[in-house]
Design goal:
- The complex is a heterodimer.
- Chain A is α+β, with helices and mostly antiparallel strands.
- Chain A starts with a strand and ends with a helix.
- By secondary structure, chain B is mostly helical.
- In chain B, β1 and β2 form a beta hairpin.
- The chains are: A alpha+beta, B mainly alpha.
């Protein structure tokens, strides 16, 4: 589909307009804070509009995944081409963007959360210019990962998120921000190196024949890597079910598991969340974690179908452990933000369990859960932010009776809490149901154990509601004011989506259904 | 005979220009007022002119001066790099406050730099053992003096002394190794030696001893483990501009020599095998030796750098580690590996010189080389700090900076050559390196300035130089095709 604005494709605009915004912000004077904020709002607002356009004109029937022709909004230019390097052949890196049912929902999520993050960043007063510049760079990185179809490009965007995040946590974070920032950086960097090495190994194992010239071309194109017939003879990752393929799968899996974060790679998350400022927590939980599961689906599953099948039980087990372990950890917390951080571990475990089921139901449930979790945790982190801004504490036991003091706020926060709990009628229920249904077909026992996580989730959420919102008004709560219009604005779109997708999830499911069924087929048929 | 010499001179213009620059410098030093920077400008002009003539040699590939010197794309690539690093070092030197006390002697300083440049030019183009050794010594002796140039500083004098002792011993050992090689093959020309070795001379023991000894000398110059012990002290003690030329120029030249010497002398020239890998001549397995050294350099360099507080010392250890990454390219024994070394060196030039430059600016302005004292500088000198951050990120190898491309290619070459364990070491040590690079960044930005906290103004010329280094570092991370092409066309060594 051709859709261009000033000669550039819509995806290029979507990815790089924050960079334009960043350049404008850097040119604005330090003191003109509102102009800086408004630039950020405008830029992310444009992203939301573009994402809206994509939502309406996106063709729900096209498959994508491993078929270049059925991707949509494709943009492909040769970026780096080096002719005939002795013995290696031609080398090619391309600027290759495209959307399919797997990525379209993530793009919508990213633009939405990015916009809401800016609104909730309004009261950041320290080094406003630097903050928004880094923020927009981060948004570009996230958006880029979701639309890149060239591994090299994917990697660049992936790593480009590291530094802005490091500074955003390290400069604007809480008391232990330095520790949290370096921990985040280190974990992700370890994953990055693993991904780099795997990417290179893949690159040297894959060569397609250029139909025009008959040359053998080494390429970073992810779609070419999915085609088993493109693997060169004697390549490190050629063949099926070889040890090296398992090793490569594992290296990639660890990288993505760190981002998800899956037990036992999750320890950076609570630290990062607690120390990060509210909007960054929102971005972190809302979008960044999804990059991990997205990476599994975009890269691990279709490129290594054999290894995916081999490790599926392993994946499901880790998912189940994360669900239960995360829920128990959440129950033990007294810090509101830490509680949500651990609940993220638990909820992302559901995603992993769902996609590891390798059937359409589980897969759809998993991807929908990615979207829903993004929205729900955004609400929860915003809710914590509202309390923290007013009371300057996040201790669960420091509050009580907030419902009487801040009724509107309580109403909104409750919707978020109940959605996280999986209450029918709200969006969390739909995706969790699908995930567990899909998983149950593939792994009875694991799923049965994992479902108990739901009960624990209910327990800690209800207990939190009781401690914070119900009961007698505590001394601390008495002077708190209810939501401001700006805060309403941040909550509103998310709450609407929570309710809407809870009652009628079809629009979201339609977007991805055909692509994800195709992905399941691809994996089950060994990449065909 | 005369014709041959005259013909050869045609390929020798850059070197001649440098020699003439040296002469002009001597005269200018006598004539000019002592306080002026005239020496720097003369050298800059000389380097630019030599650079132009070097570039004009595009496409030439032959042996001149009775097969003593190769004028080929390979040497041209290195000469371009050397000229670039020379230009930057001269620009740095003109701004370096360490030299304030020594203004009347700056003429000498630039003369020595020129001498070093000439030596390095010969290092990358000699094909005769005799000339190789001479070039080696010309470079070394100039750098010994340069290291002690700020002689009233104790550390500088000490550095010079240590450098001489280490240097003399290791070049002595190398000379012995070379003489053994000449002894068993009866020639000083590396092509003839290669032919003799290919026939098989049955003196494996002597050959191996000689290879080890030669590696000692060359390993000393590129500062690779276990011949690195001189580097931290000398890097710390020498004036920072000299440190920069040692860490960049001298390393580039030594790599040029190392690559040419080993790939011509010890590679079986009968052809490339099926897989595209070269095979080494029978009996000498220098690539295993170099692989071990590369791994050690990466491990030792990165681990030791963790504990450094002096930025020059930290960069010294980091450059040892980088020598390890670079060596990986050579042990692969393929053109791919060589071209990835060239790409790495090209990018390394900008990012490492950039790091040294900001360190110099900070040392000029804040009078400190201690990383702990960098606290809060991000708010006092924002542009310079952001610049240093980018250089350090690039040295770590994170996209979208040039350093990532450098690592990408060298890792890629090693993977495609099948050296998985070496790449694993490189990957792990890269993660370690993040710690010490990011520590500088953390100190600059995550702390409030101690004491004074107002912004500091830097002279606009320093911003220009900073940009000259910063922009390539960033651009090379996104658009690097020209460098790939340049490197690809430059691996054609005469006779390979």
């Amino acid at each position: 589909m051709e859709f261009q604005i000033f000669g550039l494709g819509i995806l290029t605009w979507l990815v790089f307009i924050p960079i334009v915004g960043m350049a404008i912000i850097l040119l604005l004077p330090d003191k003109n804070r509102n102009a800086i904020r408004w630039t950020a709002v405008t830029v992310t607002g444009i992203q939301v509009i573009l994402a809206g356009i994509i939502f309406f004109i996106f063709d729900r029937e096209k498959l994508g995944i491993n078929d270049a022709d059925s991707f949509q909004f494709i943009e492909q230019f040769s970026w780096i081409t080096v002719e005939a390097v002795p013995w290696v052949g031609r080398i090619e890196i391309s600027y290759f963007l495209g959307l399919d049912g797997l990525s379209v929902l993530m793009v919508i999520l990213t633009s939405l959360i990015g916009f809401i993050g800016v609104i909730s960043s309004w009261n950041i007063d320290k080094m406003v210019k630097g903050y928004f510049a880094l923020y927009l760079l981060l948004v570009t990185g996230m958006m880029g990962v979701f639309v890149a179809l060239d591994f090299f490009l994917f990697f660049i965007f992936w790593e480009a998120m590291l530094l802005p995040m490091y500074f955003l946590i390290g400069l604007w974070g809480g008391p232990r921000r330095e520790y949290a920032a370096i921990k985040f950086f280190l974990y992700t960097f370890v994953g990055g190196i693993l991904m780099l090495l795997t990417m290179l190994a893949l690159y040297f194992s894959v060569a397609y024949t250029d139909p025009a010239t008959g040359q053998s071309v080494h390429t970073f194109n992810i779609l070419h890597m999915m085609n088993p017939s493109n693997y060169v003879e004697g390549g490190l990752l050629s063949g099926v079910d070889t040890t090296w393929r398992y090793v490569a799968w594992m290296a990639l899996f660890i990288n993505f598991a760190i981002k998800i974060p899956l037990f036992p790679f999750h320890t950076w998350l609570p630290d990062a969340h607690v120390e990060a400022p509210t909007p960054i927590s929102v971005i972190l939980a809302g979008v960044l974690l999804k990059l991990g599961t997205y990476g599994l689906l975009r890269i691990n599953f279709p490129i290594f179908p054999d290894a995916t099948m081999y490790f599926m039980y392993f994946m499901a087990t880790l998912g189940a452990i994360s669900i239960i372990y995360g829920a128990f950890c959440a129950m033990a917390q007294t810090d509101f933000k830490k509680l949500i951080a651990y609940s993220s571990v638990s909820h992302m475990g559901i995603v992993v369990l769902g996609i590891a089921a390798l059937n359409t139901q589980g897969m759809v449930g998993g991807v929908l859960q990615m979207f829903n979790h993004g929205i729900i945790t955004a609400v929860l982190f915003l809710a914590v932010g509202v309390l923290y801004d007013r009371a300057h504490t996040r201790g669960l036991n420091d509050f009580g009776g907030v419902a009487n003091q801040m009724p509107k706020y309580t109403g909104i926060a409750m919707i978020g809490m109940f959605a996280a709990l999986g209450l029918p009628g709200l969006n969390g229920f739909v995706s969790e149901l699908f995930s567990f249904l899909g998983a149950f077909e593939s792994y009875r026992w694991i799923t049965m154990i994992a479902v108990t996580g739901i009960i624990i989730t209910a327990a800690y959420i209800l207990w939190t509601i009781q401690r914070v919102f119900l009961g007698e008004k505590s001394e601390r709560v008495k002077n708190l004011t209810d939501l401001t219009p700006r805060e309403y604005l941040a909550f509103l779109p998310l709450i609407i989506l929570i309710i809407l997708l809870g009652i009628y999830p079809a629009p979201a499911i339609e977007l991805m259904n055909s692509s994800l069924s195709h992905l399941v087929e691809v994996v089950l048929n060994g990449g065909q | 005979m005369i014709e041959h010499t005259l013909h050869s001179i045609g390929f020798f213009i850059p070197e001649i220009i440098l020699v003439l620059t040296l002469c002009v410098l001597i005269i200018a030093d006598m004539a000019a007022k002592t306080e002026s920077q005239v020496g720097g400008w003369i050298l800059l002009a000389g380097l630019l002119l030599a650079g132009v003539f070097t570039v004009l040699q595009t496409g030439v590939s032959e042996l001149v001066f009775y097969d003593m010197i190769a004028a080929d794309p390979f040497s041209r690539f290195f000469k371009v790099l050397l000229i670039l690093s020379g230009i930057f070092v001269v620009l740095f030197s003109m701004q370096n406050r360490e030299f304030d006390e020594y203004r009347e002697r700056m003429g000498e300083y630039y003369m020595l730099i020129t001498g070093m440049m000439i030596g390095m030019f010969f290092m990358v183009s000699s094909t005769n053992l005799l000339l190789i050794y001479l070039a080696f010594e010309v470079t070394s002796i100039s750098s010994y003096v340069l290291a002690g140039f700020t002689k009233r500083q104790r550390k500088s004098a000490e550095a010079s002394m240590k450098y001489i002792i280490y240097g003399a011993v290791s070049s002595g050992i190398m000379l012995y190794g070379l003489s053994l090689l000449v002894g068993v093959t009866a020639s000083t020309d590396i092509y003839t030696i290669n032919a003799a070795l290919a026939e098989g001379i049955g003196q494996d023991l002597i050959l191996n001893v000689s290879v080890v000894m030669i590696i000692v000398g060359m390993g000393f110059k590129i500062a690779v483990v276990p011949f690195h012990f001189w580097a931290p002290d000398i890097y710390e003690g020498a004036p920072i501009t000299v440190t920069a030329i040692l860490a960049v120029g001298s390393k580039i030249a030594a790599f040029g020599l190392l690559i040419r010497f080993f790939t011509i002398t010890f590679v079986d020239s009968s052809g490339i095998s099926e897989s595209g890998l070269w095979s080494v001549v029978d009996g000498v397995h220098w690539e295993i030796l170099l692989a071990g050294m590369a791994a050690l350099a990466m491990i030792v360099g990165n681990l030791t750098a963790l504990r450094q507080d002096n930025i020059k010392r930290m960069l010294a250890y980091s450059s040892i580690a980088h020598a390890g990454y670079l060596l990986m390219g050579l042990v692969i024994l393929a053109e791919q590996g060589i071209s990835s070394i060239l790409i790495y060196l090209f990018i390394y030039l900008f990012m490492n010189l950039g790091a040294f430059y900001v360190a110099m600016l900070f040392s000029n302005r804040f009078n400190t080389e201690s990383i702990e004292k960098y606290k809060g500088l991000g708010f006092r000198a924002p542009l310079q700090s952001v610049g240093l951050t980018i250089f350090l990120i690039s040295l770590t190898g994170l996209p979208p900076t040039g350093g990532f491309i450098a690592k990408l290619y060298i890792f890629g070459a090693a993977i495609s050559g099948g050296w998985i364990w070496l790449v694993a070491v490189a990957g792990i040590t890269t993660i370690i390196s993040l710690f010490y690079y990011i520590r500088v960044v953390r100190n600059m930005f995550f702390f409030k300035p101690e004491g004074e906290s107002e912004k500091v103004q830097f002279h606009y010329s320093s911003t220009v130089v900073l940009m000259l280094l910063l922009i390539p570092t960033l651009i090379l991370g996104i658009y690097f095709e020209p460098v790939l092409e340049f490197a690809k066309h430059s691996i054609q060594m005469f006779g390979v």
